[in-house]
Please model this.
Amino acid sequence: MRAFYGVTLDSPLMLGTSQYPSPAILAQAFRESGAGVATVSLRRESGAGRDGQAFWSLIQDLNVRILPNTAGCHTVKDAVTTAHMAREVFGTRWIKLEVIGDNDTLQPDVFNLVEAARILSDDGFEVFPYTTEDLIVAERLVEAGCQVLMPWGAPIGTGLGLNNEYGLRSLRAHFPDTPLVVDAGIGLPSHAAQAMELGYDAVLLNTAVAQAGDPVSMAVAMARAAEAGRIGATADPMEPRDMAAPSTPVFGKAVFE
Amino acid sequence: MKVILNGSPFESAAETLADLLVAADLGNATVATAVNGVFVPAAKRAEHPISPGDAVEVLAPMQGG
Model:
């Protein structure tokens, strides 16, 4: 099992913490699914509301690994500054690095992503870059110090699944020793299973669970699907073929004519 | 002295970033800070001077995907 910066995770499900109907449902979704990583963010705090303090208390009680993100950052400076602030608040070197290049698709700006990844890696961060399935960009990210890659399945929040399965499979083949996570785009448990069947090490999702009619059940379904895909991938699946081959032996069949 | 705190005008007599957090009722909160776009670690807040017009960001844990 590939480790994430030296950390082996029991569950292949990484779960976001946004958009749940209530904090109680968020906590229950984590508990019942067994998700081992929670993604979180940083936003402005007010002395009147102190919303962040209550949220942080809730997350600490989950007893899971924290993966802060730089969501909403469009420049290297924004992402690097946010990462430093996150490292102090959350007490972790892990950072889910997002540098967004387009507001309609939330597609990563891969050029600035590589630059930010290099700066942060040199500064001791353990970077989880939210990227595309582009092989060359992935190579540059690894050269910049990333020991994990997180290509998108589809744009954030769309639930479209794995838009480019070939690209994701190529990435797996090209980086056999690097932990890979499909981050974003997963809408159904079958998508999670598909990603894991490709040999990926984890899936990261949020909207598909939080916005489901029953988020807790969907979190459980995602966890089981991801686990099923993982087991299937390690069970040496058969090669598909075009023509039928009988599974029941022909030898010994009765003749009635 | 007036500063811009999280995007809004804020009036206080604070001379340091640590004092400003206390004035904003965030003295004991789990937050990270930046002044004029530069991260200021918690250990440096007490010695970081605040000047009129400074843009101060005070961020806390929040939901994220």
About this structure: The longest helix of chain A spans residues 215-234. The interface with chain B takes residues 16-20, 39-48, 50-53, 55-56, 59, 68-69, 71, 77, 81-82, 84-86, 88-90, 156-157, 206-207 of chain A (CB under 8 Å).
